[in-house]
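Incident log, entry 3
Record: Chalcone synthase (237 residues)
Problem: checksum mismatch between cached and fresh output.
Input:
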Amino acid sequence: MVSVEEFRRSQRADGPATIMAIGKANPPNCVDQSTYPDYYFRVTNSEKTIIKKRYMFLTEEFLKENPNLATYDTPSLDVRQEILMVEIHKLGKEAALKAIKERGQAKSKITHLPGLKPRLHFANHVDGILVEAFKPLGISDWNSVFLKAHPGRPVIMDQVEATLGLNPEKLRASRHVLAEYGNMQSACVLFILDEMRKKSAKDGLETTGEWLEWGVFFGFGPGHTIETVVLHSFAAN
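Fresh output:
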């Protein structure tokens, strides 16, 4: 009978092993690193975003001066806070001065600074909020008012459109601003209103509200809140 040791020896060669050849295998799909971001967004359907441009404070030069902002798992809160404390106020001042210049009157004549009223709801519940907001005016047909929504993402606007039974053109200004500027958080609302009034004037409509008298803008905020303001348009010219 052959022993176990003899059997094992018969399956092995004597002496050192020699590499006679090397075989390698990789998945067939190869993507160059320089084009990988575009590839990834395309194959994950992220490229379907309607956003065409984005405005931001960060530049390549600034990121080189503050490498923690672009390095994973490194502290960057102080730098971010410094940006917010300085730049947000600059943007606010710039926007306010533009509005005052357009109006052509003294700052002392400003009588109101608008505030927003939060509600604990989301896109699928926006109908109830509009009912509450327009009840004093006796309005319940949402296609009879100009309606401007904080864009957030296309899916949010799609949900609002479906929930309220809106005509496709109702959220045109919201979709336009999202495409041209991206999601600018609360500031989107003012960009949307500006787009609406300029388009109304360009098209020769009777009011700044797309020829409609009453309207509303609302924004979606933290905790699934909706902030709403009822608006009254005036003559475009």
